[in-house]
User: Fold this.
Amino acid sequence: MKFLFDLFPVILFFITFKIYGIYAATAVAIAATFVQIGWVWYRHRKVDTMLWVSLVLIVIFGSATLILQDETFIKWKPSVLYWLFAAALLLAHAIFKKNLIRTMMKEQITLPDPVWSRLNASWAAFFALMGVANLYVAFNYSTETWVNFKLFGFMGLMLVFVVLQGLMLGKYVEHDEDKET
Assistant:
C-alpha cells in the first residue's frame, strides 16, 4: 500500500496526461505532491526527506514547465531526483561514513559490512542509471512514450532490481532465521 501511496502523484500525472495533456498533468502532479505531503504530515507529524525533495523538484521543474509552456523541464525532474538519491547514498558513505541503505533496512536484516557497502553502491548505481534511462526515453521518443515509461518502465525496472536484490540477500535472511532456531 505504501508503494502505491508513493506513486500517487505519478499515477495521477499519468491519468491526467492521457485525458488532458502534459500541462494539466504537470499541474496535477504538483497539487498531488502537496496533498501527499499534507496527508503524511497529518498522519505521522513527520515527512521523510525524500518527499520534501520530491516536492521541491516538482514545484521547480513543474512550475518552469507551466510558466514557459515547455515540457522539457518536467522531463528532467525524474533524472534530477534519481541523481540526487544516488549522490546522497554515495556522499553519505564517502564523507560521513554512513550507509543510508543500512540505516533504512537494519531492522529487517543483518548483513556483514562489505555486503552493506555493495548494497549501498548498487542502489546508487541503479538510481544513476534510472536518471540516464529517463533522459534517453524523454529525448529520443514521444512525450506519450515517456509518460508511459515514467509509470510502467520505472516501476518494472524497480521491481526487477528489488527482486534481484532480494535474491542476493536471500542467503543472509535464511542465515538469520537459522540462528534463531
The CA atoms of residues 14 and 147 lie 6 Å apart.
